[in-house]
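Q: Structure tokens for this one, please.
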Amino acid sequence: MNRTKFAEYSERRRDERAGVFMIERQDETHFTLNHHPYELLVNHKAAFQADAMADRFSTVLSKYDYIVGDWGFDQLRLRGFYDPQNRLYTPERGVETIEDYLFEACNFGCAYFIVQNQDVQIPRYLSKRRGANINERRFNSRNNHHPRVRRLKSGHRSQKM
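A: Here is the predicted structure, written as tokens:
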């Protein structure tokens, strides 16, 4: 894919997503995004732009307790992190790794913001353990032994050339 096709695709995608998520500011630090409350905790270098966040937001991010937005090359990147009390918490995506993320994955000195989700929405499909699909069941029901390897004695006629 060359640059012009990529630019056309991203422009078309931006137009399709316009107006999908609606953001309403209540005050300087509180806002709602599609009627879900959020609080702006950190706004480094005035990075928070409500319209840009609404354009880049995805419903996948509603399961995270904290969302970090950073600007690089005039594009907003959003990434979610869990609170230790959240049952989806993993040490790699925990709130204590936000500083590491900012130092390692973001441009040096970039503008960023941290938003706290006041109403975390954990998807239903993550709350129940999913059963094995057909291929996994078939694999598990078979004998899981390897076929016997036939070993030849040294000097066997099939080894001689």
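A few notes: Residues 3-17 form the longest helix (15 residues). The two ends are 52 Å apart (CA to CA).
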